[in-house]
């Protein structure tokens, strides 16, 4: 175990970093948006293009949560935000996946595969990787950037990762944009992003389906 940690220290630290960063970055952005809401309301097309280019990198490297970007997009752009959000998610997924692969270089998977039982479990999981990726993306509580890294480290096929990930993100993306369109004030949207029992029930449903599905496939792999 110690040998595994020593050889994968940077990969593990990078993963924890991606899990913590959204909390700090989104707080700073929220404060700035509350203070400059009127300016953002008058952004031109070129400015929004730059915003979404920046969001590709910020989501890929855990500076901003994906739900946070979708909520704000819905607030400022309504349903016009759907296409740029979808493209940004896809690009962010690709960036996060590729950068993680460059950082790790296959060491994480190779080290795990040294143990025959672990290798067998990983091989079994890869048979259902499309469904597993879809279920992981469905849950609003699994960090976007962290799952990018974990799927990259585990040797997931890029095509399956991008396709299943995009499909899995759709329900919560549509919900977040809709919530943004319903908000009257940006402060209330940021402080209370999911008010209403119906919305909370839907979010809980997504989490439940994701957890039960992932649990089933993990149990099946073992």
Q: Characterize the largest beta sheet: strand count, sense, and whether it forms a barrel.
A: none
Treating each run of at least 4 consecutive H or I residues as one helix, how many helices? Answer: 13
How many strands appear in the DSSP assignment?
0
What is the H/E string?
HHHHHHHHHHHHH
The poorly predicted ranges are: none
3D structure, described in words:
The two termini are 20 Å apart. The protein is mainly alpha-helical and 222 residues long. It is globular, with a radius of gyration of 18 Å. The chain has one domain. It has 13 helices and no strands.
Question: How would you summarize what this structure contains?
Answer:
This protein is mainly alpha-helical and 222 residues long. The chain has 13 helices and no strands.
Relevant terms:
single chain; 222 residues; mainly alpha
Annotate the secondary structure layout:
Blueprint: H1 2-7, H2 9-35, H3 37-41, H4 45-60, H5 66-77, H6 82-104, H7 107-112, H8 116-127, H9 129-138, H10 144-153, H11 158-182, H12 186-191, H13 197-221
Helix pairs in contact: 2-10, 4-6, 5-11, 6-10, 6-11, 8-13, 9-11, 9-13
């Amino acid at each position: 175990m110690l040998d595994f940690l020593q050889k994968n220290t940077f990969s593990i630290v990078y993963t924890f970093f991606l899990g913590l960063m959204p909390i700090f970055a989104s707080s700073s952005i929220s404060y700035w948006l509350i203070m400059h809401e009127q300016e953002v309301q008058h952004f031109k097309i070129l400015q929004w293009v730059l915003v979404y280019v920046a969001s590709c990198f910020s989501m890929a490297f855990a500076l901003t949560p994906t739900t946070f970007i979708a909520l704000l997009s819905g607030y400022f752009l309504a349903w016009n935000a759907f296409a740029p959000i979808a493209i940004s998610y896809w690009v962010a997924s690709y960036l996060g996946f590729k950068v993680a692969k460059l950082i790790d270089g296959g060491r994480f998977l190779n080290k795990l595969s040294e143990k025959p039982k672990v290798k067998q479990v990983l091989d079994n999981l890869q048979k259902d990787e499309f469904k597993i990726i879809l279920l992981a993306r469905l849950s609003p509580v699994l960090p976007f950037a962290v799952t990018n890294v974990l799927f990259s480290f585990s040797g997931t096929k890029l095509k399956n990762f991008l396709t299943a990930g995009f499909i899995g993100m759709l329900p919560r993306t549509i919900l977040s944009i809709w919530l943004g369109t319903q908000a009257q004030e940006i402060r209330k949207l940021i402080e209370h992003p999911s008010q209403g029992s119906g919305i909370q029930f839907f979010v809980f449903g997504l989490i439940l389906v994701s957890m039960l599905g992932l649990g089933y496939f993990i149990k099946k792999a073992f």
